[in-house]
Amino acid sequence: MTVYIKAEDSVCLNQPSVQLKDVASLYCSDNDLAHKIKHAKLHRFSSKGNQRKIFSILKVVELIKEIDKNADVVNMGPEDFIVYYKKQQTEKKWMHYVKIVLVGTVAFLGASFSIMTYNTDVGIDDLFSNVYQLIMGEVPKGPNLLHISYTIGLAVGIIIFFNHAGKMKLTDDPTPFEVQMRLYERDVNDTLMINADRKKEEEDVNS
After folding, report:
1. Do 50 and 84 contact (CB within 8 A), yes or no?
2. Alpha-carbon gap, residue 107 to 99, rounded angstroms
3. CB 24 within 8 A of CB 83
4. Distance, CA of 122 to CA of 31 (rounded, Å)
5. Segments in the chain forming alpha helices (H)
6. What pLDDT digit, counting tens, does each position of 66-103 carry?
7. Of 14, 13, 15, 10, whose CA–CA distance to 55 is shortest?
8. Please, which residues have CB within 8 angstroms of residue 127's CB and are 6 or more apart in sequence?
């Protein structure tokens, strides 16, 4: 009997008991065998704090073989995966809004500072003044159409580039922030797996 398995790169659980169905999708033409395998216990975390455990897919194969030694296991996913255990905590609503305000303030100030330093570095104000004087034949006495157009264009360009405006997305494509977060998450998982393998902390068939 062939059993196809595909584990996730990383899984976050709120319960300490880990079953195979929590960390991997599985297909087997024998429904009874598939049910037994899905509900097989892979690991149980202790009750203390947030934890993580790194598993080799061979540990999953070993567990399936214990249920049915004649099963032919085919792995369709990663060779190693991470299981995070985090106790479910209810965050107060006001704390959630405070975090939003803090993050928004930091992002706004940081972006404003970056834009201002860039404009100062390239001398954008002098450039606009020269262009205005060249076209209108007089020195500008304050902000003019060029400044207004530049400001509007900058805002529109940022929205289009980041593919995000409030709760709305312009397209179904992932935003640059989402792409970078996924890359960061992948790098973190790879580093944790390498470190666990070197320190022999990975849950493997010989552990």
Report:
1. yes
2. 12
3. no
4. 67
5. 20-23, 31-38, 57-67, 93-122, 124-136, 145-162, 176-198
6. 998 888 999 998 999 999 998 877 777 888 889 889 98
7. 10
8. none
